[in-house]
Structures are given as C-alpha cells and as structure tokens.
Amino acid sequence: MKGNKILREYFNTVIYSDNHLKLLQEKRDRSKYLLDMFVKEGLNPFIYGSVARGDVHSDSDIDIVIFQSIAPYQIEIMLDKNGFNNYYREIIMATPADALKLYIYLNELESITIPLSKFEKRSKEFYDFGGKINLDQLDNNIRVPGIDKRLVLIQPILEGHEEGSVIGNEHLAAKKLKVSINLINERKKVLLKRERFGKTGVFLKRPIAMNESIEDVVKNLANKKSIVRKKLIPR
C-alpha cells in the first residue's frame, strides 16, 4: 500500500483508469493461476487484500491463505510439481493468542499462508477484514469490500470503488464486512499503534532454512515452548 498514513474524516470515490484496470486484470490472472494450482489438489484457497478488493498498485502483494489443515510437506510437493523450488519459509505467531502459521514466500510479492494450529473464528475474520475471494469469485470478476492499512473501508462499485475512514464508522464497517466489532476495534488499535511507534514485532518468528524440515522445526519449537505445543493441530 502506497502511503499507509491513517486517514480520518475521509471519503472519496475512485474511478479506475484503463491502466489500473489492466494492472488489476494482470494481478487477478496471476492469482487465478496460483489458486488453481491448489484447487486441482482438492483445496479451497483464498486471495486476500487489495487484489480481492480491486485497489491494487504495481507493488500489491498476491497473498494466499488456505484454512484447511494440511501437512506442510504436501504444500511443498504441490509447489515442486508446478516448478516452484526456490522459496523462503518462516513460522510466525503474531501474538500469544494468534494461530501458529507457516508463511511460504514464492517471491517478494507472492506468499502462501497455511495454519499449523487451529484457526479460531477471530483468526479467520482477519482475512475478511482485508477482503478475501476464492477462485470461483475471481473467475466471475467479483470484488469484495475490505479495509486497507490506512484504516479505510474499500467498497467496490462498477467503475472503481468508494473509500471512507473506519474511524468513527466502526459499526458500519463491521456490518459491511460481516465481522465482529471487536475485530474492527482490535485491528484499529494495532494500526494506530503502528502509525505512532512504527512497525511492531511479533510474538514468534522462526525462519526456516532450505535444508531444514518444517516438521522438525515445528517439533523443536513445541519442545521448547509450551504455548506452541498446546496449539499444534493433531495430525
């Protein structure tokens, strides 16, 4: 997102130019290719963020999340089958209350997130907060509302989107996104804190070298940290 300054008392209508529509189509075509790779294997992945909403720019990430419980090595087999063999991996738990997740970065702009512990309702709502769509919705050119890092609610319209500050309109945003007001207030608190103090750290972050097994790293983390051990998905 270009310019992450939190906006207050703000509303605007954005009409997409031909260049914007071309870029959006390119991002969505690439997203279709990546999602289809997993759909063919029986999974139901989602794209979340600006590609789902429509408010993309050249540096917009293509972020995939898979909610289903699946062994990490199976994801890696799928990637290898499709020619992806030079990626970066790390395990992250944003806060002690958050799910343990594996992030696989295909490159600087493309990532895949899978759960290593159960995704509770609040964890899943995080993706609705930013807006998420699946392959069928991409194929049908659907765009969905979501909130960006400026705390601005993006609401797609035929010619582009309408955008307005969430601050002071929290209940409206929760209703539009069909998420809890608690999530809206929690994310607002995090983003306002980030605006004030800069980027904040995470509770747990463990990069995984290419010669390391994800399963071994997770096992070692569980042996050292009881909070990880309690969260792990039984396999």
Detailed description of the structure:
With 235 residues, the protein is an alpha+beta fold. The protein is 40% helix and 22% strand. It has 9 helices and 11 strands. It has helices spanning 18-39, 50-53, 72-81, 121-130, 135-139, 170-177, 181-197, 214-224, 226-231, and strands spanning 11-15, 46-48, 62-65, 88-93, 101-107, 110-115, 132-133, 146-147, 152-157, 160-165, 204-208. The strands form 2 sheets. The protein has a 7-stranded mixed β-sheet. The protein has a 4-stranded antiparallel β-sheet with strand order 1-10-9-8. α6 (170-177) packs across α7. The longest helix is centred in the N-terminal third of the chain and has 22 residues, at 18-39. The termini are far apart. The mean pLDDT is 94.
Sum this structure up briefly.
The protein is an alpha+beta fold and 235 residues long. Helices cover 40% and strands 22% of the residues.
Structural class computed from helices and strand pairing: alpha+beta
Give the radius of gyration: 18 Å
Main beta-sheet annotation = 7 strands, mixed
Can you count the beta strands?
Answer: 11
Query: Treating each run of at least 4 consecutive H or I residues as one helix, how many helices?
Result: 9
Across the major sheet, the strand order is 7-2-3-6-5-4-11
- Which oligomeric form is depicted? single chain
Proportion of beta-strand residues? 15-25%
Considering DSSP H and I runs of 4 or more, what fraction of the residues is helical? 25-40%
- Poorly predicted sequence stretches spanning 5 or more consecutive residues: none
Taken from the alpha-carbon principal axes, the silhouette is globular
For the record, give the distance between the C-alpha atoms at the N and C termini, rounded to a whole number. 37 Å
The topology string of helices and strands comes to EHEHEHEEEHEHEEEHHEHH
- Average the pLDDT over all residues and give the rounded result: 94
